[in-house]
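the two lines:
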Amino acid sequence: MKFADIEVLDANDPLAKKRELFSLDENTIYLDGNSLGALPKAVKSRINDVVEQQWGRDLIKSWNQHNWIDLPQTVGEKIAPLIGAGPGQVICCDSISVNLFKVLCSALQLNSERSVVLSTEDNFPTDLYMVQGLSDLLSTQRCQLRTVSEEEIASSLDESVAVLMLTQVNFRTGSLLDMQHLTSLAHEKGIIVVWDLAHSAGALPVELDKCNADFAVGCGYKYLNGGPGSPAFLYVAKRHQSTRQPLNGWMGHSQPFTFNPDYQAAESIHQYLVGTPSILAMSAMDAALDVWNDVDMGQVRAKSIELADLFMQLVDERPTLKSLKLCSTRKGNDRGSQLAYSHDNAYAICQALIEKGVIADFRAPNILRLGFTPLYTSYKDIWNAVGYLSEVIESEEFLKPQYNMKAKVT
Amino acid sequence: MKFADIEVLDANDPLAKKRELFSLDENTIYLDGNSLGALPKAVKSRINDVVEQQWGRDLIKSWNQHNWIDLPQTVGEKIAPLIGAGPGQVICCDSISVNLFKVLCSALQLNSERSVVLSTEDNFPTDLYMVQGLSDLLSTQRCQLRTVSEEEIASSLDESVAVLMLTQVNFRTGSLLDMQHLTSLAHEKGIIVVWDLAHSAGALPVELDKCNADFAVGCGYKYLNGGPGSPAFLYVAKRHQSTRQPLNGWMGHSQPFTFNPDYQAAESIHQYLVGTPSILAMSAMDAALDVWNDVDMGQVRAKSIELADLFMQLVDERPTLKSLKLCSTRKGNDRGSQLAYSHDNAYAICQALIEKGVIADFRAPNILRLGFTPLYTSYKDIWNAVGYLSEVIESEEFLKPQYNMKAKVT
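prediction for all of em together
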């Protein structure tokens, strides 16, 4: 591969112009949008307005005047088309963990004769933790976690399973599960399916309605660029919306401002709201989502696969990079929008790369993880990233002590 | 009372200078800081920095570089002295509703032979709703709500009660419960006490440690000025911190970044963290709390009582305001930092007042609620507010149709 080929790829990229919508230093090669999405420029002016005018000047009146009260729904409806959900099924609130708790409780209720929540052993830990916590609270007679490998999912779907809880794209390897197939297999056994879209919403076309999905949760701060720790979202298929969830906060009440002492759940996705949402965080998310207005998710997916394929090809072409072992599949259709390489010095290599302006991340125990965000990553970024990676590894500069000091957040 | 007396009061007010720390239009008389605190100027620059530099430029590195990961604790420790809590017992996270769920589960666990959660029938509804939800989830054998009037609390404390859940200051009337006395009475019967400080944190001196409180939750967006829907906080006395709560999110794990599939709770207040916190919301809260740096809470309390007393006195002096019926006690020591008046047209009067620049709020069914925030409310504000209130009522302009159209948020 020659640099001239790379220039052609960028010149023909229908998404290339989208990078202008982001506030991203031109010397930064950001391959960590799967951990924290870059800042959309529109967020800056929105947040200024929310702080100075809405909060500072209009104060409490803003709940009506600037429709603060509707933000969870407004934002949810902006996310819906990105995950293949028809209207009235997605709402933005709380964190993924809290949202998982809500939908797991609903899902278990729909299958109250069974107790097993089946998941994968290398699911993102918070998903497994939430089931463990619920199991401790309810007893294993009502909820117990069973984990299997990704390969064993299909064969483990039997009548003991109440809920199948899967993350569509594995947070380490990026392996992509077949939502349509697994949902359908699970339904044949009467199993309710909860999908975690943390690494798929905004990364690839998701078709919740088409797959007949039951519940889903997802994250605002990765591919949706909603800002650090931005509010999460949840999806509940229309047919399940009368099933209750136990976090009866006042925002989920059918008439919160009558201040009635008895809880009466809203007859809609609103019953999944709990407490008062952060308007700053929710507004940032709302503004961030506008970058998707005219985006063709098919183009995003095609470019995502090409960026990763290019990365692998460039690594393969350099004999000095043989010490990196690919942990992701080479098949683009079976992968999310990231690659994982293992290396004994993955942490230090990641730190040394950051020093050169290439931001990737490390995932314990030994994974260098590279995320590809087609809206603001160019083919040239990939070319340069692999160049820097070679420099770091060939020179062994990653052995320097400063790259081997563990930080709180790795 | 004459205006000259008012001018003397303002001239001698040791807190008068604090108003400069807030971005508040000089023509606005803001008597709703008990619903949404005014904007501290320091928040503006902090949020700009967090958005443009921390998120926009430093991206994922900010979790370490700007100590994002420590914010829940940093903010918790800033709140702690305002509520009489020693270090390591307060953390900032989630909403009051979600935090109540966590501490209720812990409290019930500490008293697992009992099931009754005793509260007041006019507690803020979300508190009652959360118990109802937990009761539905766990069955009434493990959790059931019993409500009584404020007067009946003491006589209702018996050995069937597992948890006493009280809001220190009533959201409608502002009546203040005696934390020391009720906690002590409850402990005599082996009852665990959960305090909701929504209307007391930042409004009056709170002494959690001194009262030997067990658990507390509170709100960031009222007297603490953390911004609309800002993160809430919770307090867990050191002696209870090994008791578990069921929302096992990864942020509550003892080592979140080892990504171990088994949950191991942090051995500290950190186990009450759940998902990834909103850094925008948390940073706003952090900056907002600096207005308290050199504030004497005794002075805040004294001025709060004086402002409310002055309001009542000025209302009493005007015969035309007889249609307003005081629902709060006249005894300053038994009151939080607000007054409630009932009136058949309370909603319309509130709207007409807003039109004149006096922002109070309405609480169903017929309450005009006025909050007093000593850091940015002057005696002159009170004088003028009562003046406008007289105008609105004497002229009957509140009868105009535009003041009688109900908004989504009342």
